[in-house]
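Provenance and format

Records in this collection were gathered into a single text stream. Each protein contributes a sequence line and a token line. The two records reproduced below are adjacent in the stream.
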Amino acid sequence: MLDREMREPLFDFLDEHFGKIRTIEEKVIQGSRADVLGVLDGYIVGFEIKSDHDTYTRLKTQVEDYDRFCDFCYIVVGESHRQHVTEHVPEHWGIIVMSPEDVWLDRGADDNPHANIREQIRLMWKRELFQLLDMNGCPRYRSKSRAFLREYLTDHIPEEVLKKQMTDLIFERDYTIFDEPKAVEPKKKKAVRKRKLGERGDRKRAHTTHYVGKKTKRKK
């Protein structure tokens, strides 16, 4: 099975297995791109997909990155990997196996001892960081950076309380705000100064540089 063929059956399985879950695809965590993050009530779960056409070349680094970010970790594999996948992931990782006909839990996941709330809070938008401050009666620090707000929250709010609030906010997150058209202000007419006969007018041209991210194929 190919990666793209495994996603929809995986989402159906997660809905059936976990119940209330919100999924985020292709999220950068540390130096890796997590295939799927699942947000549960008070927990963040990571799912790394290895299709029948993928190798384990980058898995060691991916495991380290998932372990710093997720409370529970799973590897999702095609049947061709089933026999040897246990050699490539830690014992606390769960294993989900997929065939064209079925999806099943081959091994459950245990608590990840390496999960770090300081990494997990990077999931939060800035407006959500302000909400977390409000929820806990903290100063809002409107002029501060995201890094400052994240550090303040993790230093002052108990981890189990903060984690629950974070996952609640992600469940309520509304991505349609990015679909709303932005209001365009009408351009102001510039005052034109009449040039006297023989006067030389020098104009400086404003240069604007646009940086466009290139899409790259992700290596497995």
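Adjacent record:
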Amino acid sequence: MLSLLAALEAERPLQVVGAINAYAAKLAERAGFRALYLSGAGVANHSLGLPDLGVIQLADVLTDAARITAASELPLFVDIDTGWGHAFTIERAVRELERVGVAAVQIEDQVNAKRCGHRPGKELVEPEEMVARVRAAVRARVELAVVARTDAASVDDTIARGQAYAEAGADVVFAEALRSLDDVRRVTAALGVPVLVNLTEFGLTPLWSLDELREAGVGVALYPLSASRAAARATERVYRAIREQGTQTGVVDEMQTRDELYDVLDYLRFERELDEL
């Protein structure tokens, strides 16, 4: 499996798209993306039906990650929130995720009772505690990349924390909730490692184009839940149509066809092999 850093060498900024399950990963690979992301919010919202408030555990993430890495050769970058405790839980998370083929983990500097990065009321641990988290992840990895996220409230604090996390061994710094391209330029100019910008919809960061991000020196452009949000809206429409109209005929044109599904899954090859057996 290609590493996240190798993908970064091949494409800059590297576009990383969220895949909440194995089938979404296959669709992203067919669309030409070079890397995938498994969001903690994606696991909480879509696998467990829970809000993104630090309630998921390693086992939840490991299940979804293993299914995705089994289905796609693209490097998978996985959100591990705050690491679920302390140095030993972080080290275990890294070892277990690398064992199932994960290419990178993201760890953040919020307190354990974390919030979405684009919501008010976030609380951060002291930089020294986050440095210890990063060092624990780096100690445990073999080849996996470590991405350190900061939810710092100011650009100056983002830079200071980002520099400390890079010195601790982080391969990429995730600068959450930046508000302007000038802020992005300041951060990328100050850090000696690639900077990730999160282009999540309905948040605090504008939806900048790839050209704007490239000019600002961004290393990774992340689209964590774009496809899953669109899929959820489509699901709502189909359910409503069936319930209200008593038939799905009005929304069939919005659906992926059976033949298209079979093409993605290479279904006919499996069927031929079954016939031969």
